[in-house]
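name: query_chain
kind: protein
chains: 1
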Amino acid sequence: MVWAARLAVGATYVAAAVPKAGDLVGFAEDIRNYQSFPEWSLYVLAAVVPMVELVGAAALLSGRTRWVRAGAVVLGALTVAFIALIASVMVRGIDLDCGCFGKQTETEAEAVGWPTLLRDVALLGGIGVAMLSTRVRTPPV
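structure:
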């Protein structure tokens, strides 16, 4: 179950990062639509976020205890930030496409709302399960 959670979370973050890394300008536009970040930070975030997602996913999938733990912490922090950002958009009533998996066609675009929020909460749960494999086990006495 722990390996399945790591695989699901890692694959989700790779699938999210690759299209965004391939279209930094488009991703910066998606970030701008959230109306939460200063203009000067948009392209920096567009360049950094997909790389952090990829590195976190690789660490989570590595199987090495310290790396798995580090990847889970990084992806957990990102996911908490994404949940807060999505909730903020919902509270402010901003209607926009998520941009979570890069630019998508009109029919594929995912509006920010409860399904997006619940998906990210489920991802956070998967990250928590992935962390179970990193618990320090004390030898029996």
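note: The longest helix spans residues 65-92.
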